[in-house]
Write the structure tokens for this entry.
Amino acid sequence: MKNKYRNIFLLFGIAAIIIMLLSFDMDYKEVWHNLKRAGYWFPAILLLWVFIYMVNALSWYNIIRDGEKSPISYLKVYKLTVTGFALNYATPGGLMGGEPYRVMELTPYVGASKATSSVILYVMMHIFSHICFWFASIFLYIVLYPVNAMLGAIFAITGFVLLFLIYLFLRGYSKGMAVKTIRFLGCVPFAKNWARRFSIEKKETLKKIDLQIAELHKQRKATFYSSLGLELLARVMTCVEVYFILNILTTNVSFPSCILIMAFTSLFANIFFFSPMQLGAREGGFAIAVAQLAIPGAYGVYTGLISRVRELIWIIIGVALMKVGTGVTKNKKEANKLIGGGLTTIQKEEKKGVD
């Protein structure tokens, strides 16, 4: 990626951090008091996310590599993973900054279509794992807690919606989603003119991306299921953060309860996806989730606060990583040669066909 574009993303990230710091709805003395109360648990929570991002990066790396030698190193993918999530967390609506950044940084290594398809595939896998996690949590709750008629009806409706989303994702994996996404944007105000022009200009590229997406599900099942399994593992690992935080306040909390708290909170927060860092939505989700499990609501507010501070620190780390390791590496040079060589071969074959 050119430094000009990287600097635009950097300035956007810095501006988002400043806005979040200014709009933080709690006195900083109170925040510091709560962090001191957390003690050694807070550094442990920060360290935990080193490993969670490792799992996320490995899931994406498997898609890029696909059982072959990768033109990009795992450490580079790890950096792009952290930075991409940082931009997404700071963006209203999510997926507005992190995904274009990842595509632009990955393109010099694997080419534009492969970079785009791998990023789309990873985003689909990340969202799909959330849906599977929420669906499985319904059954976990039914096993652990009594369910009345009203709660049963809510679970039934939620389960039906999640099953429908699972069906849509499986269809997307088998058919591809790039062409349909651009076609959908062609009906959206303010974006429709660009989308229609883009669909005409990049028609063949979009078809190629869809073929690559469909290929993962049909012909590369080992890559598909290993990537999905890693993303589901990352979802479970995020529940460890809730377990650490609640253990600051009480020892009377089980890990399965933390899974349910995280499932409900992430579902609640994603409903309010339009809020930067899901401000307010996540804290409310934590408070409602712990109350439903007969845990004091104040514990949920405290959990939301510690989680928010952790997230802010990792956003700062992710934005700072944009300027780290931006030089041309040996792998990148080799990748460019491979891409260039492949294009030259294709051009020669086309020329032979014309002659």
